[in-house]
Design brief:
heterodimer, A: about 260 residues, mainly alpha, 2 domains, 9 helices, about 85% helix, elongated, B: about 110 residues, 3 helices
Chain lengths: ~260, ~110
């Protein structure tokens, strides 16, 4: 009984830190979902109070509208802050190809999380329509940069994943290449893996370049995500082709090349 | 005049009584089981391996070239790695930002 308990205890110990990040990501994602519900409720209330004030235009309805606006602004800030937290944690799930780039993005995301926290203090101090209008116009300027950081993080996260996949394929390809049952044709195919890898890397670099060219521009956000996503999809297609080719070769490894020739004759 | 009562065969009566006795039934059953056990033990002694059904198949032709001429390929390892790659490729990285109204308050 004691031995059984000991075995269970040893099995429960998991040294993987990636799992810690995964757990944290799930937790932050749940927080984000909760804040999203709160935002939707606050937003509907804001729309309702705004409509009532437009209809009646009294001091009471004005105060109600300002109160509802502040609630919606707070909920929106909390929603974006929790999204950024989850995204920052998500970047740690896959070992990055370029650690500096990923870490820099995580620092940026963290900085914006703090910024959204600070915004809540400002929102609390808003008392009239003029204050709110000024706040909204300032927020919109900053949100362009926030969007650029968000979409860059999403692209870099996917680039990291594709590099991870490419690395797995290259390791497997090297293992298969040393197999004595490998036929000359398949040997030739494996030699072309380097060329295919270059194509994948080219697409991934182009996707990353799109994020950088946009960030270097002015405060205006130009959504590069769809174009970058096309590059990533192309890289994904190359990777799929590579893994299908490898799978086909591996299934033929059970029989030596001589046996294949005998059967074909 | 004394009346003659019908006489029953005492042997028959004893046999009938014996057959209905549960102790006897148990004893007979145990004897039968012991006998069967002895028969099985005699047929398959401990050191004698029990013949398998596959042993009736003809022996493989040793002259024929088999894949065992080359070192066995660890295809299981490859399949594990292929599964990992498939999992990577199927992973959806979509975590879209929330749809928000940036004009709240205007």
């Amino acid at each position: 009984m004691i031995l059984l308990a000991l075995v269970c205890f040893l099995l429960s110990i998991n040294p993987a830190t990636a799992q810690d990040s995964s757990t944290l990501f799930e937790q932050y994602k749940n927080d984000y979902s909760y804040q999203r519900d709160l935002y939707q409720q606050s937003y509907l209330n804001y729309v309702n109070k705004k409509q009532i004030h437009t209809t009646y235009g009294t001091l009471i309805t004005l105060n109600d509208k300002i109160g509802a606006t502040k609630q919606a602004l707070l909920a929106r800030n909390n929603l974006l802050r929790t999204y950024l937290m989850a995204l920052r944690t998500k970047l740690s799930l896959i070992p990055p190809m370029d650690t500096n780039t990923t870490q820099k993005l995580q620092i940026d995301l963290n900085r914006w999380e703090d910024w959204f926290n600070e915004q809540n203090t400002i929102v609390d101090s808003l008392n009239n329509d003029d204050d709110i209008s000024q706040y909204v116009s300032e927020f919109k300027k900053q949100y362009n940069t926030v969007q650029a950081v968000i979409y860059t993080s999403l692209i870099v996260d996917e680039i990291n994943l594709r590099y991870h996949t490419l690395n797995l394929i290259q390791v497997l390809s090297d293992q298969v290449e040393t197999n004595p049952n490998l036929s000359p044709e398949n040997q030739q195919w494996l030699s072309s893996v380097v060329v295919k890898s270059d194509l994948v890397v080219k697409n991934l670099n182009q996707a990353y370049d799109l994020t950088q060219s946009t960030l270097q521009r002015s405060k205006q956000f130009n959504n590069f995500y769809p174009t970058a996503k096309q590059e990533l999809n192309q890289a994904n297609n190359y990777l799929l082709g590579m893994v299908n080719g490898l799978r086909s070769i591996i299934t033929k490894l059970d029989t030596p090349p001589n046996a294949n020739r005998n059967t074909s004759n | 005049m004394p009346t003659e009562t019908p006489q029953t065969n005492p042997l028959l009566t004893r046999e009938t009584h014996k057959a209905k006795n549960p102790k006897t039934i148990i004893a007979v059953t145990l004897l039968a089981l012991t006998a069967i056990s002895l028969l099985i033990a005699a047929a398959y002694p401990k050191n004698k391996p029990i013949p398998k059904a596959t042993s009736t198949t003809p022996a493989p032709n040793t002259n024929q070239s088999t894949p065992t001429d080359t070192p066995p390929i660890s295809n299981e390892l490859f399949s594990t790695e292929l599964l990992q790659i498939d999992k990577d490729l199927q992973t959806k990285q979509d975590f879209p930002p929330p749809q928000i109204d940036i004009n709240i308050g205007l």
